[in-house]
Amino acid sequence: MNRSRSIQAFAEARRMMPGGVNSPARAFGAVGGDPVFFRRAEGAYLFDLDGNRYIDYIGSWGPMILGHCDPRVVQAVQAAASRGTSFGAPTEAETELAALIVEAVPSVEKVRLVNSGTEATMSAIRLARGYTGRDVIVKFAGNYHGHVDSLLVAAGSSAATLAVPDSPGVTAGTSRDTLVLKYNDLSAVERAFADSGSRIAGVILEPVVGNMGCVLPLPGFLEGLRELTQRHGALLIFDEVMTGFRVAYGGAQSRFNVLPDLTTLGKIVGGGLPLGAYGGRAEIMDHVLPAGKVFQAGTLSGNPVATAAGIATLRALRDDPPYEYLEQLGHRLAQGLDAAASAAGIPHSIARVGSMLTLFFNPQAVTDWEVADGCDRQRFAAYFHGLLARGVYMPCSQFEALFFSVRHTPQDIDQTVAAATEVLQALTEGGEVPEP
Ligand code: KE4
What we know:
Order of helices and strands: HEEEHHEHEHHEHEHEHEEHHHEEHHEEH
CATH superfamily of the largest domain: Type I PLP-dependent aspartate aminotransferase-like (Major domain)
Oligomer: single chain
CATH architecture of the largest domain: 3-Layer(aba) Sandwich
Bound molecules: ligand KE4
Number of domains: 2
Number of strands: 14
Low-confidence stretches: none
């Protein structure tokens, strides 16, 4: 497959931007080679600078659940932009999007719109500390919550991929108030509360992890965290930036029926434009300035064009819920990949919730970062490139979940499984995957 224009573009990009990208997750750091540059996208497909078509399983790392260029979203964005791209003053669209979020997410009574998932989680932990008057935040290894200084400790996603769990520039003072525990290990959380419960402001987690690859909460884990935080007066924070509107219209909290005190959102809620949000019970959210004293602000927060994309996306998901269809596609893909890996005799495991899925090159079911870290990264890289050469664009890291959209078809899934079967077979036969 000729990708010469992407190679040229990457060389040019590297001269202008660190690593040639604006986010390390895109840099192919974990799989090697040059990232593909895209010119356009449509539905389930991406088209690169050389005109190659790919079935897209990244979906912009989650936002594109309706597929690329959904006409309802494009039309809403064009109309909003023609009325003005930013006022720095209140608009009714913000109230409308807030109302959609409040209606959809069971634990949210009030919400603040921001510009990214990172801003949402950064603000949520500041609010938890401001509301409780306590300092310590508990997080879990392999959970990624954006590039918030105090949470960039044993992070997942590209931090784990690039083996930089702690980043230079994050001071000891900043991470001193962060306690990192093992995901799915409730007894470790019980011990932490027994030791320092009166200092813990909040517990933040991905209720279904995407940033170790897809890792599910073990039965009782979410319920146990809810009970422990309640008992010790700490806030339970579900980082639903990835799972919000993905695993269910009401997010993981509605799928697992565990209600947190605060919820962070991003990705789908902005319909592919820069938008995040954090919300929770009104009596907590009313501590946020100007209603309360916890400072948080943003020039483009609630931006008219981004809110238009978010409103169009949530209305589409609310009025014609695609989750049953996504469940069927997810089952088909998981079955197909499992059969392909088994036929090739490749040790593996698969985890899936709805349209979030990961094929782990690890026979042990992945329940936490220690297990995830034992995956065969090299074999994953060869699998990734084998599929890429066959027009299938998987997440470029073992430690990311794949996503698909309502525009993917059973035929796309079958084409993906056929390519994976060929690649995995070649991997066991000689380790080299021939160009198609
Ligand atoms: P953003 O600041 O990237 O919008 O959101 C940060 C974030 C917060 N919480 C969760 C659970 C997330 O998954 C993310 C961002 N996810 C990564 C991919 N796993 C974004 C990709 C990237 O960094 O380029």
